[in-house]
Amino acid sequence: MEHTLLNLLKKSEKNCRKQGFRSKQYKKGGNCMKENRLSVLMGAAFLMATSAIGPGFLTQTTYYTETLAASFGFVILITIILDIGVQLNVWRIIAVSEKRAQDIANLVFPGLGVFVAVLIVFGGLAFNIGNIGGAGLGFNVLFGIDQKLGAIIAAAIAIAVFVVKEAGKLMDKFAQIMGFLMILLTIYVAFSSSPPVGEAISKTFVPEKTDFIAIITLVGGTVGGYITFAGGHRLLEAGIKGRQSLPQVTQSAVTGIAVASLMRIFLFLASLGIVAQGLAISKDNPPASVFQHAAGDLGYKFFGVVLLAAAITSVIGAAYTSVSFIQTFSSTILKYQKATIIAFILISTIVFVALGNPVQLLLLAGALNGLILPITLAVMLIAAYKKTVVGDYKHPAALTVFGVIIVVLMAGMSIYTIATNFSKLF
């Protein structure tokens, strides 16, 4: 018996060493599985957050700060609440069902999963073209090189993440490091712009004006399309699933929203400081203008770093999550998952280099992104009450009600947006 236990201990220690943990952890009573699980949970949270924080995220935040000033704080507050409602519903159902979203959708209604997957992949590919372009612009700001050459370099970096053997772990770490870097640099710029913090706090709760479309835009940009499922699918792939994992899944979902929201808040404060000083924000590149006004040439270089980090992590998140939506439909795609992800990134890069930013495609993808959220969230809410999906699991009624409200709001505004801008999309 003692010999068997010793062999098991050695085997466990060997596995931990493969994961990058040292044997002294055992002497201190540590547990490599717990640390690895925490790394995955944080990685999923940051994958979701950094998928959301892309070039569009930076531009939207700056634009609406200039439009609404300190009252934009109220929009951010409402957006955070709605984002949490979306993620808690979706991630919990994925964890309990132990299935990816497209497979859940197919159980709700045969063929629905294929439809949802097509929407997610198309939206992810279109936005990835914009993300690749944003990364190229980041290299241009930092080193003055051509934007298309910068896009190719950025694509190579993103592909390198998936080439390594432990791609999942590297993706987790890369997302965390880039996330922290973006937040730290934005905090520096926020302090440099000397924003009226007191006014921002007061108008966050008692706004002078608000913009319903801004709320819809921010919710769609933070948890719309593929972003909704980025972290949930990552946890599922890492084996963090089942009812016993719900507390950790909830914690990871809230952490992801918190990271994205923290970035948005500090970018809002940085922009507000510039607006309060009466300085003009460039229409061509609003966030770059804010960084440069706040911290001069150094601030402009900081913007290049933030844009590059935001764009590359969004490329990784979009590629990984989009492919996760089609890999269960084909054994070949599942077998060659990494190769498919790399092909996804290459196609995005080739389109950008050949055509530049295809505005019409991005507009159409943006409209579809708004529609994807209410469709997928509605499917998840229905699935939460189907025994063939979740067994005898009881979904919290409060989350269901909250989810239904979000579905109605997002669907209504998405239909209105498409109807009023249909001619611009084609």
UniProtKB/TrEMBL annotation:
Source lineage: Bacteria, Bacillati, Bacillota, Bacilli, Bacillales
Keywords linked to the UniProt accession: Membrane, Transmembrane, Transmembrane helix
Keyword Oxidoreductase: no
Organism: Metabacillus flavus
Membrane topology term: Multi-pass membrane protein
Cell location: Membrane
InterPro entries: NRAMP_fam
Annotated transmembrane regions: 38-58, 70-95, 107-129, 149-167, 174-192, 212-232, 253-282, 302-326, 338-355, 361-385, 397-419
Name the UniProt record assigns to this protein: Divalent metal cation transporter
The keyword Membrane is assigned to this record: yes
Domain of life of the source: Bacteria
